């Protein structure tokens, strides 16, 4: 079984992630302290085994600077590119750790949780205290989520994190005499705001009150997010029961489907809508991000609001947007570069909608990358020094101006033309929803089933009650089968 890893938090932010690990290394000396951990000295020598997406990216982002501090420590980089094309990246990373025995691992949130649960990561609590490493300067929600994923212990540190905010077009609000959204609004209040805008569902001049995240995969995702904000769960793996045919879920279905029908809420497009869209290249040229034309509506002035991560600020013409092209270009079928469709939008952000019963948490938070030490490492001093450097203030200050990600160190938040960047830091992680465990493949299968039934309701082919009845019966069958499959594996 697999946990539900952080919701899609930002414009294809996941495609920019790279993974770090360090392979087998020679023991590195140093001076013993009272805690029994060697202190690495500049003259100490040895080999530190590291694993990253590829050697070039690691050296450019971290390795060269680290070797300047410790010139006698050789870095051996183990590429993890193959991990991310595997069917099960977490299992593949575990296999790499067992075979290569890296000292330091750069992990995704899922890999971190799996390896921590299997005792393969070094507990950092003691060394953090011994070294008086500053955790007070961290966004508290990041540390809380790291510990939650680690079963209560701190097995890694993350220099950045993913979060979402509610973007809004100030000029569209002023034009229509509608008050701006504010921090801490409920989902009902935001959807009511969206319904006040004149909308157009089709054509080149389509207009939505609320455009869903550029990474929204299906029409059920918004419904699920609202339900989870209210503390609702539609599936219980332990009890082996599905509960979607309830008054609470019905009210959410009604609210969202009404928005889909009127066009005040955008309904995610089916199939692949990326053809003919935008392409952006990460700083260093290691990764590219493709964005379909259907995901540009807010950025082209065709939506009053959208919920998304920090990356779309790169498309809104902001300076210091993080190594991305601030003037993106579209690629036509014949390969020619055309002018960007983005408009100069007068925008700002507030915190994502919440439920009054849980006003301080959101399901849109995630760990973009986690640096951890192998529990079996024989080069703990060097491994810890690398972890400290990657998560230290010096690099956080540099990345604040060069990375589209959100710094986990609150002193180095982006400062962008008086925008309300605090909105991305305002809420903690909704651990109830983020840590829910569902059988492998069930979540996607149920979302596909739900999206089909939602479409029938929107098109007038059936009632909400009929849709919920089918989801209850067919969803229960999916859950039962998924659990059986997991138990057989």
TrEMBL record:
InterPro entries on file: Bact_solute-bd_prot1 (IPR050490), SBP (IPR006059)
Keyword check for Protein transport: no
Pfam families for this protein: SBP_bac_8
The keyword Signal is annotated on this UniProt entry: yes
Native source species: Paenibacillus nasutitermitis
Protein name, entry field: Multiple sugar transport system substrate-binding protein
Transmembrane segments: none
Keywords, comma-separated and alphabetical: Signal
Residues making up the signal peptide according to the UniProt record: 1-23
SUPFAM superfamilies with a match to the protein in the record: Periplasmic binding protein-like II
């Amino acid at each position: 079984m697999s946990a539900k890893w952080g919701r899609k938090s930002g414009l294809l932010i996941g495609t920019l992630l790279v993974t770090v690990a360090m392979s087998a290394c020679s023991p590195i000396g140093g001076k013993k302290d009272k805690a029994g951990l060697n202190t690495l000295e500049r003259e100490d020598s040895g080999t530190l085994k590291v694993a990253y997406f590829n050697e070039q990216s690691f050296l450019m982002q971290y390795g060269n600077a680290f070797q300047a501090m410790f010139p006698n420590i050789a870095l051996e980089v183990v590429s993890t590119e193959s991990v991310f094309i595997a069917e099960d990246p977490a299992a593949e990373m575990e296999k790499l750790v067992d075979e290569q025995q890296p000292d330091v691992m750069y992990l995704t949130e899922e890999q971190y949780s799996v390896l921590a649960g299997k005792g393969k990561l070094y507990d950092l609590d003691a060394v953090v205290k011994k070294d008086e490493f500053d955790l007070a300067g961290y966004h508290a929600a990041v540390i809380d989520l790291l510990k939650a994923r680690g079963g209560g212990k701190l097995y890694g540190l993350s220099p950045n994190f993913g979060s979402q905010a509610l973007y809004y077009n100030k000029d569209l609000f002023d034009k229509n005499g509608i008050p701006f959204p504010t921090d801490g609004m409920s989902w009902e209040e935001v959807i009511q705001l969206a319904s006040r805008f004149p909308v157009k569902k089709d054509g080149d001049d389509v207009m939505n009150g609320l455009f869903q995240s550029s990474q929204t995969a299906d029409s059920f995702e918004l419904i699920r997010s609202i339900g989870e904000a209210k503390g609702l769960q539609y599936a219980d793996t332990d009890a082996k029961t599905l509960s979607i045919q309830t008054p609470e879920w019905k009210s959410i279905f009604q609210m969202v489907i009404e928005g889909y029908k009127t066009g005040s809420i955008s309904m995610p497009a089916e199939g692949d809508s990326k053809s003919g869209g935008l392409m952006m290249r990460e700083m260093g040229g290691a990764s590219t991000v493709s964005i379909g034309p259907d995901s540009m509506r807010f950025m082209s002035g065709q939506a009053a609001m959208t919920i998304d991560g920090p990356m779309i600020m790169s498309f809104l013409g902001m300076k210091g947007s993080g190594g991305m092209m601030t003037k993106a270009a579209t690629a036509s079928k014949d390969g020619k570069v055309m002018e960007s469709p983005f408009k100069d939008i007068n925008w700002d952000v507030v915190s994502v909608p919440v439920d009054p019963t849980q006003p301080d948490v959101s399901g849109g938070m995630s760990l973009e990358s986690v640096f951890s030490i192998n529990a079996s490492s024989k080069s703990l001093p060097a491994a810890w020094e690398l972890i400290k450097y990657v998560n230290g203030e010096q690099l956080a200050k540099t990345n604040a101006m060069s990375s589209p990600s959100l710094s986990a160190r609150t002193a180095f938040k982006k400062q962008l033309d008086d925008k309300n960047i605090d909105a991305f830091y305002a809420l903690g992680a909704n651990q109830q929803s983020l840590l829910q465990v569902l059988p492998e493949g069930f979540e996607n299968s149920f979302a596909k089933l739900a999206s089909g039934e939602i479409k029938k309701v929107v098109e007038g082919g059936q009632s909400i009650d009929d849709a919920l009845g089918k989801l209850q019966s067919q969803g229960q069958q999916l859950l039962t089968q998924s659990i059986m499959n997991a138990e057989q594996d």
